[in-house]
């Protein structure tokens, strides 16, 4: 395991995932300490009908307060935010969240690329992007945008992913700062801004 | 991506040359939409794009059509239509005549969904659905009631999830990849161009639907538009917004009563 994975000055950690990512999140989120002056935003592909279930599941399993996102929700540190299904999630310069129903990107709405790119523009080097399990290519372009804007990018080790295609694609086409298993991702999150 | 300063220049020039004000649109989404049409039309320098918009009114029109979001579907959020069917329509049905307004109706999928609901509730004959959009091109599509046939599987699933009991395919005729909805549904629709940013109230309605339009506006403009709806809504009328939108920052509490978790409010005074 690599040392010196200390990230400082982080405002937002944005997490993307698709098929199989829920398992990983449920291994990580319940053991998370309080968030040190940063917020977590989760953008995962899910069916448009099961809207609230992910929020409820995280609330049940984790002590970190969870907020469902509505139009112009203000992003505050210390909270976990979950992108609603059937909308793209965008970030405004005044720390509010914006929703958009435009065309699906990578067959997905929310698209991870769209949210990652938008967050990268606003939070530049104070952003950490993490990509989890999935079976399409969504997320790779977004990670590249985060990296280009000076942020840190992390990819779940494909060996520990239920669906390794998405992390593999990201490793192939972006240059992740870290490729980590779930336990290591947890340690990384707990070390942020300490 | 385009620079912030370029976007602001575009907004200013569009206002100066055409009088249309994008200044109150949410920037994150607007920027993506402008960049999308910029790329789609093969521009590589922003000043070329800007000069095209400025000098070519036809191109300006295309740009506006492309940056306004026109993605919609039939029976989007089936639970909304369920409440509509079970709780709202029976109340509207007590009126001798029902006026509805779909503000920002895009290509009309939600308008046809509403017509189907009204028909099944036995109310279509005494209803009139006004449907407006800023974009004249989408209104032409909406008037025809022609949608891609490949969407019908998803729409009929939405329809069933919304409590629909009929065979959904009875509402349209399928032909060469398109589904043409029955004229019976469109007979009670009136389409016209209307700009929520600058136009005023034009009638009094029993129900106003404006779903997933306000998300593109800033707080100030949202307030103005919700007040426009308030002026246009009869007492005991209903206002329906998108599942992630709210009126709570725009209008004094006590004037409207919300239907549980749904984004439907009834004007009570």
Describe the structure.
The complex is a heterodimer of chains A (194) and B (269). With 194 residues, chain A is of the alpha/beta class. Chain A has a single domain (12-191), classed as Rossmann fold (3-Layer(aba) Sandwich). Chain A has helices spanning 21-28, 53-61, 112-123, 140-148, 165-173, 182-191, and strands spanning 12-17, 39-44, 66-68, 80-82, 88-91, 97-100, 127-131, 152-156, 178-180. In chain A, the strands form 2 sheets. In chain A, strands 3-4-2-1-7-8-9 form a 7-stranded parallel beta sheet, with helices on both faces. Chain A has a two-stranded antiparallel ribbon with strand order 5-6. In chain A, helix 5 (165-173) links the parallel strand 8 and strand 9. In chain A, helix 1 packs across helix 6 (182-191) and helix 3 packs parallel to helix 4 (140-148). The longest helix of chain A has 12 residues, at 112-123. With 269 residues, chain B is an alpha/beta fold. Chain B has 2 domains: 4-67, no CATH class; 78-267, Vaccinia Virus protein VP39 (Rossmann fold). In chain B, 42% of the residues lie in helices and 19% in strands. Chain B contains 10 helices and 10 strands. Chain B has helices at residues 4-18, 27-40, 46-55, 57-67, 78-92, 109-120, 136-144, 152-161, 183-186, 219-232; strands spanning 98-103, 127-133, 146-148, 172-175, 178-181, 189-193, 205-210, 233-241, 256-258, 264-267. In chain B, the strands form 2 sheets. Chain B has a 7-stranded mixed beta sheet. In chain B, strands 3-5-4 form a 3-stranded antiparallel beta sheet. Chain B starts with a helix and ends with a strand. The relative contact order of chain B is 0.13. The mean pLDDT of chain B is 95. The chains are: A alpha/beta (194), B alpha/beta (269). At the A-B interface, strand 6 and helix 3 of A face helix 2 of B.
